[in-house]
Amino acid sequence: MVDLERIKAETVTYFRALDENATLRHHFRHADEEGGLWYIEAVPDRGELVAIKQAELTSAGWLHRYSWEHLEDEHGGLTDQAIDPEEDLLEIIPTEEFQRVWTQ
Length: 104
Hints:
The protein has helices at residues 4-21, 95-102, and strands at 26-31, 37-45, 48-57, 63-66, 72-73, 76-77, 91-92. The chain is of the alpha+beta class.
């Protein structure tokens, strides 16, 4: 039987360590088909970019935030897939723009 609490605890520990120990952070924005905007903070880990914070600003004006402190809810969750800025059509944005959205 799968121990979901243990898996969640390990996931939180992984993302928290990435966030707390990051020396290099990348920030991106992506517009989705419904008119929403996605903001992503990613850090390098084992040759890949891993999202450690993700905010969705919906076309209706709702803001959903995901990080190690809040991995998921009924609206979505922090992606567990590596980030590829070119393949995922992500726009590089300044840290300040990401922080402005994240701290709303």
